[in-house]
Amino acid sequence: MSRVALIAAALGLLCGGCPEKDRDRPNLPGKTAARKKPAPPTVPESGPLAQKIHYEQAKSLLRAAKPREAVKVFRRAVEADENGELVANCYLGIGSALGDLGRHDKAVEAFEKVVELKPSDPEAYRALAIGLEDAGRLPEARRALEQALALDPDQLSAYQDLAGLYLKAKELEGAKKAYLRYELTRTRLIRSLGLAKDEKRRERAAHALADARDEATAKALGLALTDKSRRVRLAVIRALGQQRLSEGAGPLKALLERTKDPEERRLIQLSLQAIASAPQPGPQPRPKPQAPAPAPDAGAPAPKAKKPPAR
Fold first, then answer.
1. Is the pTM of this model over 0.90?
2. Which pLDDT value is given to residue 279?
3. What b-and-e string marks burial along 114-125, b requiring 16 or more CB atoms within 10 Å of the CB?
4. What is 146-184 written as a DSSP string?
5. Domain 1-9+43-152 carries which CATH code?
6. Which one has a higher pLDDT value, 284 or 235?
7. What is the pLDDT averaged over residues 223-230?
8. Where are the domains positioned within the chain?
């Protein structure tokens, strides 16, 4: 079967016969008018397409709270293409499912495989930190978070997680230092958002500040909605939607009244919906890392999890 036919079959596009032609064909004596049912899609045994199909199935099982079955299908996805681009995501899903099953040491092994495959990705180390924390290996979890922060020092939620690990170990000095680093970083990002000349720096600051769920940061983001750069404004709109704090609603409504940009208007409405549906105020529980959903609309704001989802 050709590659095109294989993909078409996997998408369920192949069928037994053409309905339009069948509809126009007269019934002949001795013939029945019943049509053949389309054959089920053919799933290849290996290769990128097989990996993608198994991967999507495994994610569905994980969302349906069937971790044992999800582990098996994630492993099948890995075996389908061991050098495929989804392998790291599969191991992230395996780690999450094993954690749900209480097999924390095995979950750590899966997260370590993610780090091995993506050594320059801070989210891989954050996933590893979650697994290590669940396994009770707090010093190692702190080291994993420090590695994540070395790769991306703007991750505000990673500082919060680090402080939480110190508190869990009843090491108050370590927790104080982590919170101080968080506050210094938050202050620096707010300064960059308002004063940096480089557009990309302001945009990155807006993205990072979405993790700071406090009134002062929401107000700083609201002021940045007057930025001359459309890219920065869009980043700020998304950040306010991810924060989901009531303080962000007023500035968003004000921008909605004066902007005619269709993309800005769409994102503002999504962010306002997120704010309206969120509990006010209070910290949110940290979810376990999950296998990533299919690529969403890049503009749609979504609550940003403290624990990193698999990508």
1. no
2. 82
3. bbeebeebbbbb
4. HHHHHH-TT-HHHHHHHHHHHHHTT-HHHHHHHHHHHHH
5. 1.25.40.10
6. 235
7. 97
8. 1-9+43-152
